[in-house]
Amino acid sequence: MADPQPQPEVLSESVRINGTAAEATLTGGELSWRPVAGVGEGQEQRLELDSEVLGCRVDGRKLKFATFASSAVANGERPSSVARGGRGKGGGGDRNRRRGEVVVEMEGEDAAARWGDGIRDRLASLGRPKRLFIIVNPYGGKRSGRSIFQNEVLPLIEAAGILYTMQETKHRLHAQEIAHSLDLRKYDGIICVSGDGVLVEVVNGLLRREDWETAIKVPLGIIPAGTGNGMAQSLLHAAGEPFSVSNAVFAIIRGHRRALDVTSVVQGKTRFFSVLMLTWGLVADVDIESEKYRWMGSARLEFYFLVRTLNLRRYNGRVLFVPAPGYEEVGDPVEQDTGVSTGIQEDRSNDNNGEPKCGYVGPSIEEAGLVQWRSLSGPFVSVWLGNVPFASEDAMAAPKAEFADGYLDAAIIKECPRWDVLGLMFQMKDGAYVNSPYVEYFKVKAIQIEPGLRVGSSSKGGIIDSDGEVIARGDGPRSRAAGDEPPEHPMAYGPPIQLTVDQGLATIFSPR
Ligand SMILES: Nc1ncnc2c1ncn2[C@@H]1O[C@H](COP(=O)(O)OP(=O)(O)OP(=O)(O)O)[C@@H](O)[C@H]1O
């Protein structure tokens, strides 16, 4: 039998807290005190180290707690009866946190040093990171990554006493290069101050390393500073926390983590890894084609959605999938005896389109194929595959998605009157759109997309977008001669694109 964890010593002392004489006790993960005179005399007050304290430093006879909690706690004023009201364990108070300071003055420096050690040990036992590598994208979103880092991230990280190395990205795929070559032994986590794109680059960089198996276990963190902040919103929302930079930073400081599914997206020898979503049809068209209206600000998406709905496109094609348990009746059965009828083929040769032969090759579809494949045939208005609930701050595209269930959530719209499409958009905010009879919502272990031409066009296909990057675009036939520029997108539009999920392969800092 394993030895029981040694219980930390209980410390008690007569102190002054924020100037008021009090009896203080440090028990487990909590500092509690009762003022012995004046306001609040005899009333117990508490400070939870895990959910309310950024850090603590000793300054002579004083212990200075940097707090991040409800305003009353931040000033050392909240009575424990209030503190306990309606709060889950480790929940972190009323979520409207503010920075504050609680100063505990001891009678002597020895006592302060002893308490300082006790608090340091307790904070360390919470598994908080000590050294972080922080990647800042100064270019994403509203170009505010740098100022978010300086003004909102750094003060909290410093108050927590975390050592860090910061590097700004200089170009596309720079974050992938950094993650590919970083000395991971020096850090307890890699943090992205960016949109989702940089986080995805980091995952791809780690999985292309020779030591990918250990590298991908390094906890990742995301602090929203992009246009698409779906991962940050998904993590905060799952914990009941409001979307904010400081809540995202505090989640990283607390060091709680959760497993995260990684999807391998494969076409022939081209392979990359996704942690958010893949979309084909309406949503991809709106997302990508509306770029030319960027000058409109965030209204561009609504505007272009309206344009596209009025001229609704439908795409031919087929999706084949291995349904998750409970979804075996979705779609039609696929003949599977020869493999020819499905066209499902695997290339797990560890040759990533000429890149060095190392890194992760993804889970086998054949393993997934132990169960029956099913299919849905187009035309499709929209195909959405999500690994996490939110596609952006205010679009809950896959409301039942879980971080590490080993499945992708599919939301597929086939035939749908255009006014109903418009209605669905308004129900995207809270995910209610999936209850529409026009939306087929189910979970899959693996899925293959066979994208076809737009209905009514003999040459135009659609756009396939994974985690905000266009991976294939059917712009019509283009003659390519030897010496031509390499194709703009990594995959071709037309041949099958396969997705398989590796359950909980990555690790991400999470409020809960
Ligand atoms: N210095 C840079 N110059 C240009 N592009 C960059 C730079 N640094 C990073 N990028 C690229 O910016 C893209 C978007 O980054 P990020 O994830 O931060 O934001 P996003 O929300 O996904 O997108 P958006 O650019 O629409 O805000 C990524 O593909 C990344 O490679």
From TrEMBL:
Residues 470-488 have a biased composition (Basic and acidic residues). GO terms for molecular function: ATP binding; sphingosine kinase activity. Residues 127-269 form the DAGKc domain. It is found in: Vacuole membrane. Its main location: membrane. Pfam families: DAGK_cat (PF00781), YegS_C (PF19279). Keywords: ATP-binding, Kinase, Membrane, Nucleotide-binding, Transferase. SUPFAM superfamilies: NAD kinase/diacylglycerol kinase-like (SSF111331). GO terms for biological process: cellular response to abscisic acid stimulus; sphingosine biosynthetic process. It is an enzyme of class 2 (transferase). Its EC number is 2.7.1.91. It comes from the Eukaryota. Residues 76-99, 332-356, 467-495 are annotated as: Disordered. One of its GO terms (cellular component) is vacuolar membrane. It is a peripheral membrane protein. PROSITE patterns: DAGK (PS50146). This is sphingosine kinase.
